[in-house]
Amino acid sequence: MSSSAFVQIRRDLHQIPEPGFGEVKTQRYLLDYLERLPQERIQIKTWRTGILVRLSGTNPKRTIAWRTDMDGLPMNEETTYPFRSVHEGFMHACGHDMHMAIALGLLTHFVQHPITDDLLFVFQPAEEGPGGALPMMQSEEFAEWRPDCIFALHIAPEYPVGQIATKPGILFANTSELFIDLYGTGGHAAYPHKTNDMVVAASHLVTQLQSIVARNIDPLDSAVITVGKIVGGTKQNIIAEKARLEGTIRTFSMESMQRVKSRIEAQVKGIEAGFECRAEIDYGCGYCQVFNEESLTAAFMDWVRVACPDVELIQCQEAMTGEDFGYFLSEIPGFLFWLGVNTPYGLHHSKIEPDEGAIAVAISLVSRYFTWLSTQPVEIDRGATR
Ligand SMILES: CC(=O)N[C@@H](CCC[C@H](N)C(=O)O)C(=O)O
Known about the structure:
Order of helices and strands: HHEEEHEHHEEEEEHEEEHEEEHEHEH
Bound molecules: ligand L5K734KM
Structural class: alpha+beta
Shape: elongated
Number of strands: 17
CATH topology of the largest domain: Aminopeptidase
Helix content: 25-40%
CATH class of the largest domain: Alpha Beta
CATH superfamily of the largest domain: Zn peptidases
Number of domains: 2
Number of helices: 10
Radius of gyration: 23 Å
């Protein structure tokens, strides 16, 4: 199949973004495609809204896995595309449509050009939350086909098409969601002394939270606290009895994650005392860091430099993004790399339009890498993951 077929697949998937564990139409679309492929060497299993596809090799010594995520984000799309999302309030703004099209392109390539090793394609739901990687990895379905190594990519708006970036070791941060509910006493806008205004309390808290990164974390370490959503109040002349902050915490070390959480808890206690209100904190879902297995990543980087003159490899710095692919890497050697898609809008932006030329780049690069990897001796050190 030509790469334009996978561009069309990406566009089809772009139109039907769905929330984590709600990827019902996406799963159906993928299964329909998979069922149309020659079936001789394919086995397919579903797990919740995810899919596992095993392709048997010609003389397997190991199983090499490729993972894609599947879910969209709850946001309104503002691209110029004629194939915009038809699911109002949802958008593929993190490239998972591109990731899935690339995974199908790879799978199709290996159906047509078998290699010696077995391949496992992991279509994983709920990367944006609540996290599909950990429960999928712990499932019986995955255990039965557990791979020896696992790889993934993520689109990178800031790099041109033809460039990829990665590094051995830590690539993405530890994450924790953050939800804080504030409960006070509402009332008439003209009688503030008879109320505990949760809009004012929430505003103080959002501002105070910023001091944690500035004043409680070693400046040579890194941490992020982002409050991405505030909900509070019902009308402009009613003092709000409730407010809710929704955010996320990012750190490179688990010690810093604990430190940030304990400072948040102290500040929230202060808000309770200062505003005579009650607060509840919920940390939602948390992901472990993406730690690229060092020797496999270094060998991949050397291989790209020597064998792929068409691809420009950058050794990048770690980023504060999160990815539940980190759970796979905590047990199975592998790595993730950034794929350049050249767009001025960042991930999670309502106007992001990744350059679809990157789909062919990724299929070509990863298919050559897996073909080469399957010719290499099996010397994957399971103890080398963190
Ligand atoms: C690649 C990417 O953008 N991943 C998300 C993961 C979100 C995890 C969780 N829902 C959270 O917000 O903490 C990211 O925001 O980095």
